[in-house]
């Protein structure tokens, strides 16, 4: 990885809520993180580990109190940096999408961001249409829908469309599948994988280890605001005991594979998804004939 490939560089980041008060709470402690062009980064940790706070530093919602955050060459500790442009380039989809929707109609909500950067007329309409379709919302059927009538999964897609309409280089998602039914979850995961294939760099925070296994190449594990483990996804998930210390577990497929190995079935280590596990079992059955 060369320096030219790095889009986000976090060094020694610390953050305290309500500092210098009796209610001070440390959320991040000396965090280092890099995100390179085209990567899929996972950030995992238990409740209160600091995941959301870290994500909100990546697009300038929080400025660094301690340490540095450099995004696409812009030092966010510099008060002269235009965070509006940073937030256009680094799109953040919040954990609760209903908090991200504010316009009465879906089309207006998706159009709001591009309008703030001067897009109007037919160009704006086409941008909104493409963003909605990328997110899985039919433009004709949903542009005039009232936002408050959307289901949870539709709200998630509308929030994603509003971010995609800004044409970001990096997409940051906080618990993207939380609260979704199984089919909506699989649909969203598939759309995120397709967006990555089209060139978007992804940063995903989740407590769902199966989502992280499907979506990411590298993982950072947070515990009490510190990075306690990092590396390629398969290597990190090989440290089951360390993950459990951080209040996490390995993906279900890896747990099943470990159980089968303990029962004497010689499956290769490293299966992270059910599809990979099925392939390993099929290979074993073929060899056992």
Which SSEs are present, and which pair or pack?
Elements: E1 6-17, E2 25-36, E3 40-45, H1 51-58, E4 66-71, E5 74-75, H2 83-89, E6 90-93, H3 106-116, H4 121-135, H5 139-142, H6 152-164, E7 170-174, H7 182-197, E8 201-205, H8 209-215, E9 218-223, E10 226-232, H9 233-237, H10 240-245, H11 252-262, H12 274-288
Question: How would you describe this structure to a colleague?
Answer:
The chain is an alpha/beta fold. It has a single domain (3-250), classed as P-loop containing nucleotide triphosphate hydrolases (Rossmann fold, 3-Layer(aba) Sandwich), CATH 3.40.50. It is built from 12 helices and 10 strands. Strands 6-7-8-3-9-10 form a 6-stranded mixed beta sheet, sandwiched between helices. Strands 2-1-4-5 form a 4-stranded antiparallel beta sheet, covered by helices on one side. α3 crosses α4, α3 packs parallel to α6 and α4 (121-135) packs across α6 (152-164).
């Amino acid at each position: 990885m060369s320096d030219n490939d790095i889009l986000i560089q976090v060094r020694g980041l610390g953050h305290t809520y309500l500092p210098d008060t009796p209610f001070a709470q440390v959320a991040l402690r000396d965090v280092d993180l890099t995100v390179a062009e085209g990567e899929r980064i996972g950030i995992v940790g238990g409740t209160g580990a600091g995941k959301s706070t870290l994500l909100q530093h990546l697009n300038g919602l929080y400025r660094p109190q301690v340490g540095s955050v450099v995004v696409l060459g812009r030092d966010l500790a510099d008060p002269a940096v235009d965070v509006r442009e940073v937030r256009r380039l680094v799109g953040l989809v919040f954990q609760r999408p209903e908090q991200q929707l504010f316009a009465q109609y879906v089309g207006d909500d998706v159009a709001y961001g591009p309008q703030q950067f001067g897009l109007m007329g037919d160009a704006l309409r086409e941008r909104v249409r493409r963003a909605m379709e990328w997110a899985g919302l039919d433009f004709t059927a949903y542009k005039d829908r009232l936002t408050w009538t959307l289901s949870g999964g539709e709200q998630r897609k509308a929030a994603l469309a509003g971010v995609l309409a800004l044409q970001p280089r990096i997409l940051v998602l906080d618990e993207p599948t939380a609260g979704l039914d199984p089919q909506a979850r699989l649909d969203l995961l598939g759309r995120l994988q397709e967006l990555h294939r089209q060139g978007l760099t992804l940063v995903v925070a989740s407590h769902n280890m199966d989502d992280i296994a499907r979506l990411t190449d590298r993982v950072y594990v947070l515990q009490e605001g510190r990075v306690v483990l990092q590396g390629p996804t398969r290597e990190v998930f090989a440290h089951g005991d360390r993950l459990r210390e951080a209040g996490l577990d390995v993906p279900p497929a890896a747990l099943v594979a470990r159980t089968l190995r303990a029962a004497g079935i010689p499956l290769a280590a490293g299966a992270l998804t059910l599809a990979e596990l099925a392939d390993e079992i099929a290979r074993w059955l073929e060899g056992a004939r």
